[in-house]
Amino acid sequence: MFEIGSYVSYRAEGVCVICDIREERFGALGETAKYYILSPLSDEKSTVFVPMNNDALMALMRPLLSAEEILGLVSELRYERLDWIEESRLRNLKFREILSLGDRKQLIVLVNTVAEHNELLLSLGKKVGSTDENALYRAKTMLFEEFSMTTDLRFSDEILPLLRGERSLSAKEPAVI
Questions:
Q1: Its pTM surpasses 0.85
Q2: CA pair distance 47, 163, nearest whole angstrom
Q3: Tens of pLDDT along 165-175?
């Protein structure tokens, strides 16, 4: 169980602070249920309600990782890649699915896959697709937002060197509200 004031990662919303835990009733016939009330750091005007009785949605609310946990995850996934989907429309759908779930493991694999593919294209003198570049940017930004809360990461450009084992991490205490 999370506490009010805790930081969590939730889907594509990214890092959120738990503002409240309370009972709510949505809709005319809706049952009253207990909810975590989240405020995404990237959009202070947004509020996310996560029903505590919905195991699927609760599973998407994850505590932030420590520097040690991040390094372990990065090491574990360093050589993992997605199967490249040649059809750009289908590839874009897959990337959007990964980005919408915000799962850090899938995001790491996405970054590794697209960065490697883009480097191959550039080495062959070919252009990188804007859809692939946008997915890479969003995934790196999402990882940076989460990882920078508990580590010394200062810029999203540090994500790729981190994933390649070219950058280390130091822990920092997350801000307390």
A1: yes
A2: 31
A3: 999 999 986 55
